[in-house]
Write a structure and sequence with these properties.
Chain lengths: ~250, ~300
């Protein structure tokens, strides 16, 4: 099983991104296997979001390639990449605010070619899973922040992605909301065989959630590996975690 | 009673036509955040299609169907000729290309058909009148009301209960996000233009049915009406466009009923003054619509 899983891994190899001459990402390689959670961390401006943008086709690559199970996806349009099974969230929640919660969730299933009835069933199942059933007919724009985040993840899951890339999913959440989110996310790899890449500044959340960490600083990989080992890496402590985390 | 019925029929029939015009404009604006200034020419295309089929002896409904299809084709052509090639470049570029396409179509009509009004075939029922509660009204007004109700209901169903409609609403709210989810952008945009053309075609039939002739500049007034209605109602909301259409018709009809003969020629000045007042009160229009109004 391990072999077939690694064949379907999401693989960014030597990815570089330039913005008018400035190297935002420099030769970054990252592998995300199904059913694993990888934390992507680094100081502000280290290129974390740029890496997600590069994988999802929103910024062109200046070098390197991105593949899923050996098939190249870099160079495809964001839509094509989405259809290959990669879904993402943004730092700022981007729901369809004037549509109902259930319509938001089914919209992503519909984009993958299922029928309206199947999409509605899938959306209702997901909303039940996320304890959002009674809000199904509410306008998404009227939800609390925590609920919006959950709807966003439900919407991403409605597309049955193989990989989910979350950009600061817990940002702006209170402790209770963050705890609920952590519980939902930690279940996903087991229940859905999903590979999760998570950017977050909440080190507590990252350490509890992730099997592996990938650390960026100034657009370069400075460490990667098991969460505990990376946390002890002196380069990481210096670049990002600081004395606070080292003492934690 | 008679007066009330007369007034209601006038407001509803004019409002129905205005609402459909506004909807045709706002469906494209909602997704692209760009005004299609060649929208009026879609109505013109429907009109000239009717004129050209005038002597063919075809049943009127068949001619009407073909005219609407021509407007749909012209709508899709607008996307391919004026919008798609420059869509990603700049707002100014699309403004210019949509004006250019509008001018091109108008001048083609001037050159190849005639600058003079040309008659369009109308069924007898369009010139008949009926008496309802003592109010005498042309049957075409009632047809307009029924057509507007049917089309608005159909439109609401399409937007809420079909895959295309849900995808279009998602794209209208946040185009980039919809694409990230896998919604096919070009198909959605072309569909919006096709629906816009369909509405323009039907409105064209009803609108030209009032006058009985078509001229190259026939689309200017509907474009202006649609634009004002959407501005009043809220550029980002389809419901707003419909409400704006009916409100504008209410203003127009009220002025028609109340202004004296000498003042009636200044009706538009009164209308626009009221529109300005509405916009001072609600600068974003009556219905705000989705907040993310970013262009794509």
């Amino acid at each position: 099983m391990g072999q077939s899983m690694s064949e379907k891994s999401l693989n960014a190899a030597g990815v570089s991104v330039e913005f008018s001459g400035l190297r935002a990402l420099d030769n970054v390689s990252l592998t995300l296997s199904p059913a694993e959670i990888v934390g992507l961390i680094g100081p502000n401006g280290s290129g974390k979001t740029t890496l997600i943008n590069a994988i999802t086709g929103q910024v062109p690559l200046a070098g390197g390639r991105v593949t899923i199970g050996g098939d190249q996806i870099s160079g495809l349009s964001p839509r094509r990449i989405a259809l290959k099974g990669i879904n993402r969230s943004f730092q700022i929640v981007r729901l369809f605010n004037n549509m109902t919660v259930v319509e938001n969730v089914e919209s992503s299933a519909l984009a993958h070619g299922v029928s309206l009835r199947q999409a509605r069933e899938k959306a209702n199942t997901l909303l039940a899973e996320f304890s959002l059933s009674e809000k199904a007919e509410d306008l998404a724009g009227n939800l609390s922040y925590g609920d919006k985040r959950r709807v966003e993840i439900a919407r991403a899951l409605a597309a049955d992605p193989a990989f989910l890339l979350l950009d600061e999913p817990a940002a702006g959440m209170n402790e209770a909301e963050s705890e609920t989110l952590l519980h939902i996310l930690s279940e996903l790899p087991r229940t859905r065989g999903l590979g999760l890449l998570i950017i977050d500044h909440d080190m507590g959340l990252i350490m509890r959630l992730c099997n592996r960490l990938h650390v960026l600083a100034s657009g370069r990989t400075i460490a990667e590996g098991k969460a505990d080992e990376v946390r002890k890496n002196p380069a990481v402590i210096e670049a990002y975690l600081g004395s606070e985390a080292a003492n934690a | 009673m008679t007066f009330t019925v007369q007034f209601l029929i006038d407001v509803l029939s004019l409002g129905g036509a205005y609402a459909l015009m506004a909807l045709g404009l706002v469906i494209v604006y909602g997704i692209l955040k760009l005004v299609n200034f060649a929208y009026g020419e879609l109505i013109m295309v429907a009109g000239y299609a009717m004129f050209l089929m005038g002597g063919s002896g075809l049943p009127w409904l068949v001619m009407a169907g073909v005219a609407v299809i021509m407007a749909v084709i012209a709508g899709i052509a607008t996307d391919y000729v004026a919008f798609r090639p420059v869509r990603a470049k700049s707002v100014t570029a699309v403004l210019i290309t949509s004006f250019a396409f509008s001018t091109l179509l108008q001048n083609a009509a001037l050159l190849f058909i005639s600058p003079r009004p040309r008659p369009v075939p109308l069924p007898d029922i369009f010139s008949q009148t009926v008496t309802i509660f003592g109010a005498i009204t042309p049957v075409r007004n009632l047809i307009t009301i029924v057509a507007a109700i049917v089309l608005l209901a159909l439109f609401a169903w399409l937007m809420r209960r079909t895959v295309l409609g849900i995808a279009m609403r998602a794209a209208a709210t946040n185009f980039t996000m919809a694409r990230m989810l896998g919604v096919p952008a070009n198909l959605i945009i072309t569909s919006a233009f096709a629906i816009s053309g369909f509405l323009a075609g039907v409105v064209g039939l009803l609108w030209i049915g009032r006058i009985g002739t078509v001229v190259p500049g026939i689309g200017l007034e509907p474009l202006l009406v649609a634009f004002i209605a959407t501005v009043i109602g809220g550029m980002r909301s389809m419901t707003g466009a419909v409400i704006g259409g009916f409100l504008l018709a209410l203003i127009d009809t009220t002025l028609n009923y109340t202004l004296s003969q000498e003042l009636l020629k200044f009706r538009d000045a009164f209308t626009f003054s009221l529109v300005i007042l509405i916009l001072l009160w609600r600068p974003d229009g009556l219905i705000k619509g989705p907040a993310s109004g970013q262009r794509t």
